[in-house]
Specification:
The chain is of the alpha+beta class. The protein has helices at residues 2-9, 11-37, 60-66, 90-94; strands at residues 47-53, 71-76, 79-86, 101-104.
Length: 109
């Protein structure tokens, strides 16, 4: 309690507390909106293929991030094809604020 009073008593402490609160709110928002980005229709398998849509054309950075989750098999416009994703990781991919939508990759796609 004493530490909290000291932090609130200084400008630096207030700034740090404000930044910590903003970070927690940002993470909570990302967690809350992630499920809405994932479309239905994924097969009941451990590994799935997906099309990930961004609000812009993907750059090298985005491709490298997606490679942590599966194999990038191509891009088209604002979309990235990602194969062999552990289905439990779809939520982690959706938590990236620059991911707009995740949909199943159609057979033959």
């Amino acid at each position: 309690m004493r530490l909290l009073r000291q932090a609130l008593g200084s400008r630096r402490g207030l700034i740090l507390l404000g930044l910590a609160a903003a970070w927690v709110l940002w993470q909570a928002w990302l967690f809350a909106v992630a499920p809405a980005k994932i479309a239905g229709g994924f097969p009941e398998r451990a590994r799935v293929n997906a099309v990930i849509t961004l609000p812009f054309a993907p750059e090298r950075f985005h491709i490298l991030v997606f490679q942590r989750y599966g194999r990038v098999s191509g891009t088209e416009g604002n979309s990235v094809e990602l194969r062999g994703i552990d289905k439990s990781q779809l939520g982690a991919i959706a938590r990236h604020y620059w991911v707009r939508r995740i949909e199943p990759l159609q057979q033959g796609g």
